[in-house]
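This part of the workshop introduces the protein records we will be handling. Getting from the letters to the tokens is the skill we practise here. The record below serves as our worked example for the rest of this section.

…
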Amino acid sequence: MWGGQFSPYNVLQIYLSDAFFATSVVAYGIYVFANSKRVFFSLGNSHAKLAISLAIFFALISYFLSINETTTFFRLIEMLKLLVVYIFVINRLISEKNLITLLLACLLLQLVFGILQFSMQSSIGLNFLGESLIGE
């Protein structure tokens, strides 16, 4: 159907970052449950609550009006991951400095991969990580 071309919209991919993210959220949940703590999360000020509510509302509308519900569902999960990270930062469960350090490290790694792919004009051999075949 697609002539042998790779399409990320036709493949279910679970990234290593997704596994780390899910593990950290579950571990935090177990920690809270094991210590019998009552935890109250803030969503920030009223402007933040409105923005979050609107984003979730429009994402759900997009899901129900989508032609490909599976792809939209996984994009909705990505959005919910961003919401959880926001909740972690706003409630000081992770420091802003650590978050920025992690984001910069990931950005640097992706930059190196992109420069290598561009300079070689082909894949760099990371097929086991889900790298698309480029120029082959």
